[in-house]
């Protein structure tokens, strides 16, 4: 069995409301075990004997689209991949700063976002590429009004990216294995 983490994009914001119990039920209905949701932002931990990650991702997206009536999009990682991404976070924890990891469905989107990063003021925010993701840290006072936040919120990026706070990702990794 492999332990997977599915990060859903765009639920419980913008009119797409899904109860976490219903989400867990939908994932379990696909035959996965140990299904646990974390927070109400579309984070699912589960175990599966399926090893074809692309097929598993497609199955999840189709099932969620059918069940909840929206165009589902997920980032699917093994727990090891997520742990490695969190462990590689390049910025120090700092008071007054938010730490995020941004995931995308298309590497070209990440490349384009990185191209904008050199123009950022390092006193307000920092962006660094990782393995199929971007690390982002922003001063709390600047927050969602930062240049990178504004850029990543544009429709061309928003539709294929999702980000998670580092604290949330650590909570996901702390979920005990199913018994």
From TrEMBL:
Q: Which Pfam families match?
A: DUF1697 (PF08002)
Highest taxon above the source species: Bacteria
Q: Which InterPro entries match?
A: DUF1697
> What PANTHER family does this protein map onto?
BLL4334 PROTEIN, DUF1697 DOMAIN-CONTAINING PROTEIN
Name it.
Answer: DUF1697 domain-containing protein
Identify the species of origin. Answer: Cryobacterium adonitolivorans
Q: What is the lineage of its organism?
A: Bacteria, Bacillati, Actinomycetota, Actinomycetes, Micrococcales
């Amino acid at each position: 069995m492999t332990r997977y983490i599915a990060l859903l994009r765009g639920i419980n914001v913008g009119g797409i409301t899904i109860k976490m119990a219903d989400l867990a039920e939908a994932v379990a209905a696909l035959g996965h075990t140990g299904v646990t949701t974390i927070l109400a932002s579309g984070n699912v931990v589960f175990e599966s004997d399926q090893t074809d990650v692309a097929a598993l991702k497609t199955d999840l997206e189709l099932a969620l689209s059918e069940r909840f009536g929206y165009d589902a999009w997920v980032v699917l990682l093994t727990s090891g991949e997520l742990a490695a991404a969190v462990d590689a976070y390049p910025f120090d924890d700092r008071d007054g700063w938010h730490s995020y990891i941004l995931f995308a469905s298309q590497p070209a989107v990440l490349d384009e976002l990185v191209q904008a990063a050199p123009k950022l003021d390092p006193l307000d925010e920092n962006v660094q590429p990782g393995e199929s993701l971007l690390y982002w840290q922003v001063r709390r006072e600047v927050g969602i009004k930062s240049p990178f936040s504004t850029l990543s919120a544009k429709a061309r990026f928003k539709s294929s990216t999702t980000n998670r706070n580092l604290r949330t990702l650590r909570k996901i990794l702390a979920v005990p294995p199913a018994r």
